[in-house]
Design a protein that fits this description.
Elements (H helix, E strand, L loop, with lengths): L1 H7 L27 H20 L3 E5 L3 E3 L2 H6 L11 E3 L6 E5 L5 E2 L2 E5 L9 E5 H10 L7 H6 L10 E5 L3 E3 L5 H6 L14 H4 L4 H6 L2 H18 L2 E5 L15 H8 L1
Parallel strand pairs: 3-8
Antiparallel strand pairs: 1-7, 2-9, 3-7, 4-10, 5-6, 6-8
Helix pairs in contact: 2-4
């Protein structure tokens, strides 16, 4: 990461991540349905929000240490046009999945289009948040019910819903989406995330309605209704968000429904 920061001439503050290896079962808070690695990731992000609020700055870029930064990121961070956009969180990374976004761009930051997201999009490896929203996150999310990206980027979790904007193309992605060489380099990352969620042990403790919402049939029906609603609207489209930098291999985009199925 340091080499990338030097190349883009970025002045950053590194915060040591919290490792799930240090957690025992008794360290996990009651009422949460996330794994130890996901909880450790949340606590690492929460520490970054605290540092940001204490700094007095109006915006902060939060990066996980397995990200790949395109040159465009420097122009995004130095563009005063960012003040013209009303957002809580500006998502500056992309995954190889599709997302419902505005058909028309709302403007540009650093030469990249800005669109509002209308469905869940993976990842909180790179995002810009406002001071106001960081305070809200600290106040409202003490014990996370879900992983941090779900809490922020899934439209149904925080009420009122955060205003999330997406850069298109995005100037940040994760190493695993770039090349097999960089996948190997992920071993140097402090972040350990599971490839699957582990909710089985807690599902039996959930109310019947919550268990129903976890079933594949409910998810598929909900996704179908969402697609039809957006299709009728016409101003929202389902499309992948490209990465603005260079890649050794480009992952083919898949549908959001397939992406969620893979994660679960």
């Amino acid at each position: 990461m340091e080499l990338q920061f030097e190349r883009l001439m970025l002045d950053v503050e590194r915060i040591a991540s919290i490792d799930a290896i240090d957690f025992s079962d008794s360290d996990m808070p009651s009422g949460t349905r996330i794994s130890k690695p996901e909880y450790a990731c949340f606590l690492s992000h929460r520490e970054a929000w605290k540092r940001f609020v204490d700094s007095g700055d109006e915006y902060a870029l939060v990066l996980e240490d397995d990200t790949v930064l395109a040159p465009d990121l420097k122009f995004v961070l130095s563009d005063p046009e960012i003040d013209k956009f009303d957002f809580d969180l500006l998502h500056v990374e992309t995954w190889p999945y599709q997302v419902w976004v505005d058909r028309d761009s709302r403007g540009e930051i650093g030469g990249l289009n800005v669109r509002r997201t209308h469905s869940y999009f993976y990842g909180t490896a790179a995002y810009i948040l406002t001071r106001k929203f960081a305070k809200r996150a600290l106040d409202e999310i003490d014990v996370p019910a879900r992983p941090v990206d779900v809490m922020f980027l899934d439209p149904g979790w925080m009420t009122p819903r955060p205003n999330v904007l997406q850069l298109d193309p995005a100037p940040v992605t994760q190493e695993c989406f770039i090349s097999s060489r960089q996948i190997k380099q992920q071993d140097d990352s402090d972040i350990r995330l599971p490839t699957q969620y582990h909710y089985q042990d807690t599902m039996k403790e959930q109310p019947a309605w919550d268990r129903l919402k976890e079933t594949p049939t409910y998810k598929k029906l909900k996704w179908t209704i969402t697609c039809v609603r957006f299709w009728l609207d016409g101003s929202v489209v389902l499309r992948p968000i490209a990465y603005s930098g260079e890649t050794d291999t480009q992952s083919a985009p898949v549908s959001m429904e397939q992406g969620k199925a893979d994660a679960n």
